Amino acid sequence: xxxxxxxxxxxxxxxxxxxxxxxxxxxxxxxxxxxxxxxxxxxxxxxxxxxxxxxxxxxxxxxxxxxxxxxxxxxxxxxxxxxxxxxxxxxxxxxxxxxxxxxxxxxxxxxxxxxxxxxxxxxxxxxxxxxxxxxxxxxxxxxxxxxxxxxxxxxxxxxxxxxxxxxxxxxxxxxxxxxxxxxxxxxxxxxxxxxxxxxxxxxxxxxxxxxxxxxxxxxxxxxxxxxxxxxxxxxxxxxxxxxxxxxxxxxxxxxxxxxxxxxxxxxxxxxxxxxxxxxxxxxxxxxxxxxxxxxxxxxxxxxxxxxxxxxxxxxxxxxxxxxxxxxxxxxxxxxxxxxxxxxxxxxxxxxxxxxxxxxxxx
Length: 362
Prior knowledge:
aldehyde dehydrogenase (NAD(+)), Aldehyde Dehydrogenase, Chain A, domain 1, 13 helices, Ald_DH_N, Ald_DH_CS_GLU, Aldehyde_DH_dom
C-alpha cells in the first residue's frame, strides 16, 4: 500500500470527524457539511490519478528533445472561511503531487479543518513537507513577501487578490488566484423548470452557504444589496427585501429579485448572500452579451435539453475556472492544474556533438 493510498484511507476514516468540524466552524447543516467532506474525498481520489511525466517531443538520428517538469518549491496556500476543507484539499494535493512543500494559512474564522487535515498528513509525510499557520490577517502579507515561498495559491475576494498580486510582483512570484465570481445561469425554454431550479440552487453550494440554505450570515456588505433593491423599487419574486422581518439574529432571508436592470448593484456585483436576480430573455445573442458584461468570469452555466444548443452558447461565454477577467489568475484542477506548480524545461541533445543544452521557461 502506497503513502498516497494510506493518507486517502485516513481521510475516509475521519469523514465523521471532518463533518462535525465543518458544522462547528462554518454553521453548515449536517447534510451540507458531509457533502463537502464527500466531495473532498472525491477530489482526493481524482488527484491520485494525475501526473505530468516527461514528454519526448522529438527523438531521431540527429536530435532528442524532451519537455520536463520540476517543482517550483515551497507553496503558500491561503484559503477562505467557506468550503475550508474542499479548497484546502484542492490546493494541497496538486502541490504535494508535484513535489512542492506546503504552508497553508486557513481563515481565522474556520481554521480547524485545515489543522486536522495537516495533522493527518504529517502522519504519512516527512517532517516539514506540510505545515499550517493559523492567525490573523498579518500572516498573509508575510507569506506573499517571503522570498523563500515560490508560489501563492489564494482563494477569496478580488480586492484582496489584487493586493496579493501587487505584493508578489517585485519577486515575480508565481500566483494562482481564485477570486470573485458573478456567475450567470442561462435557462432555455425547453427545460423542466422545477428540475432546473433545483439544480441551479444546488450549484450555489459552490460558495456555501448561499442558496443551499434559507438564510446565512448577513453582514453590512450583503445588507447593502437588500437596501439598494428596496430603495430603487425593484419587484421581488420571493421575499420583500426587508431584512428586519427576518428571524432574530445575523441572518438574511432568501430573496429573488424580479427583472432588475443590468446596471443594478444586484446584477453587476457579487452579493455573496441569499439574494439573486432573475431576468427574462427572448433573444439568444442579447442574453449572452449581458452575461459576459461583468468584471468577473469565474463560471457560468447553460440549461437546455439540446446538447448542440448548450455547446453553441457555452462556447460564447467568457467564463472559466479562475482565469477570466477579474476572477483571478491561472487555473486549477486536473493535470493542467498541476502545471501551475511546476517549472517547464526543455532538454535538447544533439547526437552529432553529444552535448546537452537546457532552456528553462519560467
